[in-house]
Amino acid sequence: MSEQLTYFLEQNPSVAKSICEKSILAQRAREAARKARDLTRRKTALEGMALPGKLADCSDKDPANCEIYIVEGDSAGGSAKTARSRATQAILPLRGKILNVEKARLDRIYANAEIKAMITAFGTGIHEDFDITKLRYNKIILMTDADVDGAHISTLLLTFLYRFMPELIKQGHVYLAKPPLYKLEKNKKVWYAYSDEELDQILQEVGRDQNNKIQRYKGLGEMDAEQLWETTMDPEKRILLRVNYEEDSESELDLTFTTLMGDKVEPRREFIEENARYVKNLDI
Fold it and tell me: Which of 147, 167, 222, 283 is catalytic?
């Protein structure tokens, strides 16, 4: 049998090459998975495990009181660290767009610095090592710019959470922050609008005249710490959208992530064309 296999492979070098490549990839994936398990089998922060260096952690050690903001970029991360309530709000800034886990190899995913930082900060582990009782924050809040790039980053983050830690979504721990789109100043008074419709309502109330100063926020980095706290981080005033998960729609949700974030371009184009009419406040 072994001689026949050897002969076959000698006569079909392309098949032999394909088998070798798949074996190497499988070995890389196993090694990456082992490293990931070593990374995620961690004790609580109180027991001396090192947290990511760029994480500004909160001082309260009761997870029920704590929340973590996943923030896009160092600029917004700096404002968020200044604005936050240090007792209960942790900040983890990410550099640029994280890896698309729908398309990347497992060894690349587990080696990615941003993904490793989130896995370590959350404390739950992933896949078969996932343990919800070790979750260090009751709320995981994705805070990105209110534009197309920010929406893309949120989708990348949600894809990672859905594929590696779906229970965080299922049990209602994942939220999207909703920063304002506009700031209106008039006669030393300030209003914030979170949509075009809300801005129109405010203008109807205060009047449309030359004393109006309207600022369109292109990103969180345009807000100072005080504005970011007042509009997006203050638990008394902020708007949070919880990411809901319905068991009945699991296959549909799985297909949506595969369509949007996978390798095939044509299904993604068709999905976007079919759903474009539902999109509002598109900033291009």
Answer: 147
Q: Assess whether 98 and 205 both reside in one domain.
A: no
CATH for 104? 3.40.50.670
Domain final residue, candidates 130, 151, 176: 176
Question: Do residues 121 and 136 touch, judged by C-beta distance below 8 A?
Answer: yes
Active-site residue 74, yes or no? Answer: no
| Residues 172 and 191 placed together within one structural domain of the fold | no
Whole-angstrom CA distances from 63 to 44, 123, 232, 269 are 11, 11, 21, 41
In the chain, the number of structural domains is 2
- Predicted confidence (pLDDT) per residue in 214-256, tens digit: 999 888 888 889 999 999 999 998 888 888 876 655 554 444 4
230 assigned to active site? no
Q: Is 57 a catalytic residue?
A: no
Contacts of 214 (CB under 8 A, 6+ apart): 182, 183, 184, 199
Note the pLDDT tens digit of each residue in 33-67: 666 555 554 444 334 456 777 899 999 999 999 99
Range of the domain at 228: 182-233
pTM, rounded to two decimals:
0.72
Is there a catalytic annotation at residue 72? Answer: yes
The residue from 67, 107, 145, 230 that is catalytic is 145
- Indicate which residue of 129, 149, 167, 222 is catalytic: 149
